[in-house]
Write a structure and sequence with these properties.
By secondary structure, the chain is of the alpha/beta class. The protein contains 17 helices and 18 strands. The strands form three sheets. An eight-stranded mixed beta sheet has the order 11-18-17-12-13-16-14-15, with helices on both faces. β1 and β2 form a beta hairpin.
């Protein structure tokens, strides 16, 4: 067998090992190292990192690796690979074309596909590219010299409500967009802010970022301190107005979405994690909209590998559970907690009774969002549960939690959007459920939904069983991690959080672990 290795070493570093027609292994290094948005060193320190984190995954394939694709590697990093694999062919893969091909890891190509890749980076300041699938390959359709990702992200620094260490460097603050989307609905769109914020986006550059942000705040005539923080409501209003400008600029530059030649719209790149925009694209076009679960740079190596395979033979993944298996042995913990095997029905009963359950099931999800295999699950009918989950995760009060539903029930509870298997859309909840399911409803009446299908296995069965018990076929799903840390994939880290938080049960591949209390009834008997 001959293998190809594709490696991306900047933030969200990742690696994919592939053969001619399938992906063998996919590694997100932040989930290995335990450092969110992990990137490798560009200089001599990379030699040790290569030995510790990269080579162990390549060792068994060493003599059968014939090609290595570089995605944004420094010269030192490239030379390290060349020394380790002197007989290999080496290639360079571009940023946005790798993004584009990563989509086809999760959906089959169709002749009328319009692909939009947009974020805050690129190879030559090419932040926003459109492609189409034609003649059995991805072809460039249009390039827009517009950076939507970074100016959107940087505006989060003006808010004191968002927990963040201020930094005005270009590649920092990668955690801010999700927080901004959570906080912005508490603000109002200010018409007199639109022109200045629009110009801020259009003129944004890599240099003098703090000065650029300061100039914007002066133009808006809001008071700010030495850290460029503004008062609570003004910050909310600026962020909500920025969301509108972000969307308006997208639609101004992506008229192709309305072209009847294109039947599907495929979105990728960091900006496609903006669920408000995704939902608006569907609303305006009524076309099938698909968003990759590895939209951010964590999917670069997948796309680089897929660009080399024969897509007529390649079968897309059935779901996003394609990451690594969990690490460490659970034997010690089985003895310590006197754990037992349980059925999915038993787990559903505990959730119905109001328990919070952390899950470690099979392989970890690819991408930034937990989808059931590394999740905190809870009962959406339980009042106050959102705040309790945010407290466990050390998150701000305005952060929403996601409802996870089965495909057959999505349109029962929510207004119509495409199936949202990877938490890509935010429809409004139907009015008759808004009160009973208030814990999953955001301030603007929307919900960041996740749609589970039979192919998702465990989580789909669990929702079904929960629905049979409660009459409500929805669970709360949020990622199994705490502020500033990646999704947990290490058993010892899982038990540390379990032992020091209000999580009631830890579920690992069919086995339940419980913190026993002398005066309470135990599931483990």
């Amino acid at each position: 067998m001959k293998y190809t290795v594709s490696i991306h070493t900047k933030h969200d570093a990742n690696m994919t090992i592939s053969s001619d027609d399938r992906i063998i292994e996919y590694i997100e290094f932040e989930k290995v190292v335990g450092k969110r948005y992990f990137s490798f060193s560009k200089n001599e320190n990379f030699a040790e990192e290569f030995k510790t984190y990269i080579f162990p995954y390549l060792k068994e394939f060493k003599y059968e690796i014939v090609k290595i694709n570089f995605c944004w590697l420094s010269e030192f990093q490239k030379n390290t690979f060349k020394k380790a694999f002197p007989r290999c062919e080496f290639g360079e893969k571009k940023h946005h074309i790798s993004h584009a091909y990563s989509l086809y890891g999760f959906t089959k190509p169709e002749e009328k596909d319009l692909i939009i890749s947009f974020d805050g980076g690129g190879d030559d300041e090419d932040y926003f590219k459109m492609f189409h699938w034609k003649d059995e390959q991805i072809n460039l359709l249009k390039e827009v010299k517009l950076n939507l990702g970074t100016p959107y992200r940087i505006l989060g620094l003006i808010s004191d409500e968002i927990k963040s260490t201020p930094s005005f460097e270009y590649d920092t603050n990668l955690h801010l967009p999700g927080k901004i989307m959570g906080l912005a609905p508490l603000g109002n769109i200010e018409p007199n802010y639109i022109e200045a914020i629009n110009e801020y986006y259009l003129s944004f550059g890599k240099e003098k970022i703090k000065e650029t942000l300061k100039s914007l705040l002066e133009e808006l005539k809001v008071t700010f301190d030495h850290n460029l923080k503004v008062d609570k409501q003004s910050a909310r209003n600026i962020l909500q107005t920025s969301q509108k400008v972000f969307e308006d600029l997208f639609f101004e530059n992506a008229n192709e979405i309305y072209n009847n030649e294109f039947k599907r719209i495929l979105l990728v790149g960091g900006c496609s994690l903006n669920i408000k925009l995704n939902s608006e694209i569907y609303k305006r076009t009524q076309k099938d909209v698909f968003v990759s679960p590895v939209s951010g740079d964590c999917g670069i190596s997948i796309g680089a590998s897929i660009s080399d395979v024969d897509l007529n033979k390649f079968e897309p993944f059935k779901n996003a559970f394609i990451g690594l298996k969990y690490t460490d042995d659970i034997t010690h913990y089985i003895e310590k907690y006197n754990s037992k095997q349980v059925t999915i029905k038993e787990i559903a009963k505990e959730l119905a009774d109001g328990k919070i359950i952390a899950t470690i099931v099979d392989r970890i999800e690819a991408g930034a969002r937990s989808l059931g295999n590394r999740s905190l699950l809870a009962n959406p009918l339980q009042k106050g549960i959102k705040d309790k989950l945010n407290s466990i995760k050390e998150r701000e009060f305005f952060r929403p939690v996601a409802p996870i539903i089965t495909d057959k029930m999505q349109n029962v509870y929510f207004e119509k959007v495409p199936f949202s298997r990877y938490m890509s859309f935010s429809p409004k909840i139907k009015s008759e459920y808004k009160t009973s399911l208030s814990e999953i409803v955001h301030y603007d009446g929307t919900c960041r939904i996740q749609t589970a299908t039979k192919e998702d296995g465990f989580i789909y069965e669990l929702i079904n069983n929960f629905g049979k018990i409660t009459g409500t076929e929805i669970l709360i799903n949020t990622s199994f991690n705490v502020k500033g840390k990646p999704i947990i994939n290490n058993v010892s880290d899982a038990f540390k959080l379990f032992e020091t938080s209000d999580i009631d049960f830890l579920y690992i591949n069919g086995r339940i672990f419980e913190k026993l209390k002398s005066n309470s009834k135990s599931l483990i008997q």
